[in-house]
C-alpha cells in the first residue's frame, strides 16, 4: 500500500506530489498523535479556567478584545468557518486540494495548534477516502494565512459547503456520509487551527516548483536540440569557461548541454562555421543557470514552509500560548514571485531560439521550416503564439508581494498576497511549457532538413519520442493539434523520462 507518514517535520516534495497526484494514503505518526493530544489539553485547561487567550476565548482579528464564554466556544468556531468561507472564482483542481489538505494536516501534526486528534484524523480520512472540498482559487490575502480558501476546506467537515467524491460534486454532508466519515463538531480553537495558515499558497507553489524543476530539464533538452539544428558552437559550454564564474546553475547547465549533445555530428567547434553564436545559444548556461539557482532557492523555502507551524496563536512545548505572526505569507510571497520570474526567463530565451530556427535571415534553413514556402506557412505563426505567451508572462511576472491592503479594521495592516504570487507562478510555468514544446517541435523539424545526421546521446532520445508521436510537417496542417501532443509529452513526462534513461539531467 502506497502511504506517506506525516509527523510535521519530514514531508518531502516527492511525497507531496505522491499524495496530490498519485493518490497515496496518509498515516499520522504515533509521536505526532501524542504531541497533538498534549497541546489539546492546554486548550481545554484555558477554557475550563476562563483564561482570556486570543482565538480560544476571544473573537478574531479586530474582535480580539471580545471575550467569549465557555457556552459560546463551539458557536464561535463554527461561525468562524461559515463567515470566512467567501472565496471566489473557479475551484482548485483536485491535486491542489489534496496538497492543501495534506499540508494542513502535516502542520497540525506538529502539535502546536491545539486541535483535537479527532478533527485531525477526520481531515486525514477525507484525503484517504477521496472527499475533496470545493475550494475557490481567489480570496486570500496571504495573512492571516489563507483564511477564505481554508474555510472552504473545512466546510464539508461540519456538513456544509461542497465536495467532490468519486467524480461527483455533492453538498458537504452527503459527500461525508457517502464516504462513511462522521462530521466534526468544532470545539475551542479548532476552527482557527484549521484555517490559520499558509497551506493554500504553499500547496499551489510547491506543485508549481515540482513542475518548474521539470521545466529546467526540458529547457536544457530543447536548447540542445536547437543547438544541433543550428549547428551551434559547443566550446561555450566547456568547463574551463564556467569554473572561473562558478555559479552552480551555470556550471550544471553547461555540463547538461555537453552531455546531451555528446556524439553529435551537428554541433561545431569555434571557428569551424562561425566564430561565435548569438546569445540565445552561447549564453544558455548563464540564463538557464540563473533560473536553476532561483528555483532551487524557492525549493529550499518551500520545504521549510511545508514542515512549519503557521498558526496563531501557537501553543509552545512549555505550554505557553503566544500570539505571533507565523501565518504571514511573506517568505512564500517573495519566493513565488521569484519562481514566476525565473520560469518566465526560460520562456523568453526559448521564444528567441524559436525565432532563430524559423527566420531564414538568421540561419541556413528553409524559411519558417517548411517546403514550398508561400504556399505553406509552416512554423510562422507558432512563433506568434509563443511570443504572445511570453508577453503575457511579462505581465504575470509583476510581483504580487509588493502590494498590501490593510484588513480587519487595520488590525491586520500588512498582508503578503502570497497566494496570488503562487497562482501567477503556476500560470507562467504552464505558458512556458507550451513555448518549450514549440521550440522542441521546431528544432526537430529543422533537424530533418539536415543531411547525414547523427544526434547526441540525449537529444536523439528526445527526437525519437517526438517523431514517434508527431510526423515531419511536409505541408500545412492544423498546428495546434501537433502542439497539444508535444505539450502533453512534456506534461506527462514521457519525453524527459526517456532522455533521462541515457543522460541524467541535473538541476
TrEMBL record:
InterPro entries, per the entry: Aromatic_Lyase, Fumarase/histidase_N, HutH, L-Aspartase-like, Phe/His_NH3-lyase_AS
PANTHER family membership: HISTIDINE AMMONIA-LYASE
Residues found modified as 2,3-didehydroalanine (Ser): 144
Protein family per UniProt: Belongs to the PAL/histidase family.
Pathway listed: Amino-acid degradation; L-histidine degradation into L-glutamate; N-formimidoyl-L-glutamate from L-histidine: step 1/3
Reactions catalysed according to its record: L-histidine = trans-urocanate + NH4(+)
EC identifiers of the protein: 4.3.1.3
Organism: Clostridium omnivorum
NCBIfam families hit by this protein: hutH, PRK09367.1
Compartment(s): Cytoplasm
Entry-linked HAMAP family: His_ammonia_lyase (MF_00229)
Name of the protein: Histidine ammonia-lyase
Post-translational modification: Contains an active site 4-methylidene-imidazol-5-one (MIO), which is formed autocatalytically by cyclization and dehydration of residues Ala-Ser-Gly.
Residues joined by cross-link 5-imidazolinone (Ala-Gly): 143-145
Keyword annotations from UniProtKB, A to Z: Cytoplasm, Histidine metabolism, Lyase
Enzyme class: lyase
Amino acid at each position: 500500500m502506497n502511504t506517506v507518514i506525516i509527523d510535521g517535520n519530514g514531508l518531502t516534495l516527492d511525497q507531496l506530489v505522491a499524495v496530490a497526484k498519485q493518490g497515496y494514503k496518509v498515516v499520522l505518526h504515533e509521536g505526532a498523535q501524542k504531541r497533538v493530544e498534549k497541546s489539546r489539553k492546554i486548550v481545554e485547561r484555558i477554557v475550563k479556567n476562563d483564561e482570556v487567550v486570543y482565538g480560544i476565548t476571544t473573537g478574531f482579528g479586530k474582535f480580539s478584545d471580545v471575550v467569549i464564554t465557555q457556552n459560546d466556544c463551539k458557536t464561535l468556531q463554527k461561525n468562524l468557518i461559515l463567515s470566512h468561507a467567501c472565496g471566489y472564482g473557479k475551484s482548485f483542481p483536485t491535486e491542489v486540494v489534496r496538497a492543501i489538505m495534506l499540508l494542513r494536516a502535516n502542520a497540525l501534526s506538529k502539535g502546536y495548534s491545539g486541535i483535537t486528534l479527532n478533527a485531525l484524523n477526520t481531515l486525514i480520512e477525507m484525503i484517504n477516502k477521496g472527499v475533496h472540498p470545493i475550494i475557490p482559487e481567489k480570496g486570500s490575502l496571504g495573512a492571516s494565512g489563507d483564511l477564505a480558501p481554508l474555510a472552504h476546506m473545512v466546510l464539508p467537515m461540519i456538513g456544509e459547503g461542497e465536495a467532490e467524491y468519486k467524480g461527483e460534486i455533492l453538498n458537504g454532508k452527503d459527500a461525508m456520509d457517502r464516504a462513511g466519515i462522521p462530521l466534526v463538531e468544532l470545539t475551542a480553537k479548532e476552527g482557527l487551527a484549521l484555517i490559520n495558515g499558509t497551506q493554500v499558497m504553499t500547496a499551489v507553489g510547491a506543485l508549481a516548483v515540482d513542475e518548474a524543476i521539470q521545466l529546467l530539464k526540458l529547457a536544457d533538452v530543447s536548447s540542445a536540440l536547437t543547438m544541433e539544428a543550428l549547428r551551434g558552437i559547443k566550446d561555450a559550454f566547456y568547463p574551463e569557461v564556467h569554473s572561473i564564474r562558478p555559479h552552480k546553475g551555470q556550471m550544471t547547465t553547461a555540463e547538461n548541454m555537453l552531455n546531451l549533445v555528446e556524439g553529435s555530428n551537428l554541433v561545431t567547434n569555434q571557428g569551424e562555421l562561425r566564430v561565435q553564436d548569438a546569445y540565445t545559444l552561447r549564453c544558455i548556461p548563464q540564463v538557464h543557470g540563473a533560473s536553476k539557482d532561483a528555483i532551487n532557492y524557492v525549493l529550499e523555502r518551500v520545504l521549510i514552509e511545508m514542515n512549519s507551524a503557521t498558526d496563531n496563536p501557537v501553543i509552545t512545548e512549555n505550554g505557553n500560548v503566544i500570539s505571533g505572526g507565523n501565518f504571514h505569507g511573506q517568505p512564500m510571497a517573495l519566493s513565488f514571485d521569484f519562481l514566476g520570474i525565473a520560469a518566465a526567463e526560460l520562456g523568453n530565451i526559448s521564444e528567441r531560439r524559436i525565432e532563430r530556427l524559423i527566420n531564414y535571415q538568421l540561419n541556413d534553413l528553409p524559411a519558417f521550416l517548411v517546403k514550398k514556402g508561400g504556399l505553406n506557412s509552416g512554423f510562422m505563426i507558432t512563433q506568434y503564439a509563443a511570443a504572445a505567451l511570453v508577453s503575457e508572462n511579462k505581465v504575470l511576472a509583476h510581483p504580487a508581494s509588493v502590494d498590501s491592503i490593510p484588513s480587519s479594521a487595520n488590525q491586520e495592516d500588512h498582508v503578503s498576497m502570497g497566494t496570488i504570487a503562487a497562482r501567477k507562478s503556476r500560470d507562467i510555468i504552464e505558458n512556458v511549457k507550451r513555448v518549450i514544446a514549440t521550440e522542441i517541435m521546431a528544432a526537430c523539424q529543422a533537424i530533418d532538413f539536415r543531411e547525414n545526421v547523427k544526434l547526441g546521446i540525449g537529444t536523439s532520445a528526445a527526437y525519437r519520442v517526438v517523431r514517434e508521436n508527431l510526423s515531419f510537417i511536409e505541408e500545412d496542417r492544423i498546428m495546434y493539434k501537433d502542439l497539444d501532443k508535444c505539450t502533453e509529452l512534456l506534461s506527462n513526462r514521457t519525453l524527459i523520462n526517456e532522455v533521462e534513461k541515457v543522460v541524467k539531467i541535473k538541476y
